[in-house]
């Protein structure tokens, strides 16, 4: 198994990090927080780059660090793949040599068979003979990910791999990142300050604030956790994991089912019945009603239960809804919440104005 | 146009400068690496000692080396007790003195190059399973190559140009310690201005040429990194 168990304590000049975290063995775990909250430091602790960090770090049964036993493996002894924010390719080596750098050092019998699928996965075949200075930002980052994978790591650590790129380059890389968890049976720890990247990529979400754990859990749950700063921000959204359950071709609609009901989506002709869908619904696009609205143009109206509520003191109320196994956030006005007499446990109807397929 | 003793001085000078530069690259590179990366209390005093030859008159260095290496000096006594000859007024003594004399000209350019290395590249190498010595040879050294080139040229040129230290520690022994700078001095003393002129011009042209090449190569490599 590749479960990651980390417990770190580290005091730096600007803040102190104190974390005890278990991360799942597969999929992308996003570490989210504002700049300076300690998320990069946390990643560096896992990699063994922060020598002053005290605590414990183990993957499966392999212990990399246990300060109580004075055990500390250096970075080069830990089986990690690390992707830096600014690719950090070796400028004096070609792309191919960059890939071979780690490969040669991580296995006694390096062979090209290891590299071929990685090169294919990241689409960098045509770049192999180039020097890093001749690559675009997006290409550099793809090579950097390939280089980190070439050492056959037991955990892939990514430090804001998209932050240094412009929007177009991000869109270029995102599909490659989204494919990683399907191709790799290892945990991917992904540090980011972008809610967009969290909703698009993560399976598991950890929210940090000032070096402390604020919330952690499955993406769908943590995203809608009213304790988390993500849930109260203006960009707050929920993720629903659904699958295509049918098409209404004459209306140009596709039906997506999940445990909380069925949603109508813009026509997805190319997606066959059964295809999984990751749907994002912004909290501001959800409104609530006590009775099932009649004669409305809104298609998606689902039965829900209020699971939690907080008021922000500035006229807004954040409501967490439960729909089957899924959770949905609604941002409504404080006045509406008062007039409808909303309370935790009440049954309501959620009207969803827009749904995006990620 | 050069007399046989001129040729001998030229040969001796090149031999001295080559040996000194090689020794300095081997000793100075780890020293520069240490100075570039340590945060220990001895960084400042050690840097100051390395830089001393820049400001001290060569005669001062020569004098103390002469005292230390001579038959009554600490090192001289120790060498005698091992059954070795003392170093003053030998070619080996000249090499030892030159190593001290040219130390900062080799260490400082390398140290600057190491200090301006992107720290994250070294960290990236360690996450790619390279142990610290491996990181040094596979990433730090290749990326510091322009610093190493500058150090080689400055160390070589500075050793060729030394005079005071040579006179103090090496004296003026033909074929053993009489280098070009001393030979020029002898010609002038003997009123042989034409011969002094030839050697002096040779030194001037040589020094200009290698410094010019150094700046040319360094500005080219900067240009290539930018493009």
Walk me through what this model shows.
The complex is a heterodimer of chains A (about 350) and B (about 230). Chain A has about 350 residues and is an alpha+beta fold. Chain A has two domains: about 5-230, P-loop containing nucleotide triphosphate hydrolases (Rossmann fold, 3-Layer(aba) Sandwich); about 235-355, OB fold (Dihydrolipoamide Acetyltransferase, E2P), CATH 2.40.50.100. Chain A is built from nine helices and 21 strands. In chain A, the strands form four sheets. In chain A, strands 7-8-9-3-10-11 form a six-stranded mixed beta sheet, with helices on both faces. Chain A has a five-stranded antiparallel beta sheet with strand order 2-1-4-5-6, with helices on one face. A five-stranded antiparallel beta sheet of chain A has the order 14-13-12-15-21. In chain A, strand 8 (about 155-160), helix 5 and strand 9 (about 190) form a beta-alpha-beta unit. In chain A, helix 2 runs parallel beside helix 4 (about 135-150), helix 3 runs antiparallel to helix 4 and helix 4 runs parallel beside helix 5. With about 230 residues, chain B is an all-alpha fold. Chain B has a single domain (about 5-35, about 45-220), classed as Orthogonal Bundle (MetI-like fold), CATH 1.10.3720.10. Helix content of chain B is about 80%, strand content about 0%. Chain B starts with a helix and ends with a helix. The mean pLDDT of chain B is about 90. Classes of the chains: A alpha+beta (about 350), B mainly alpha (about 230). The interface of A and B includes residues 80, 90, 92 and 102 of A.
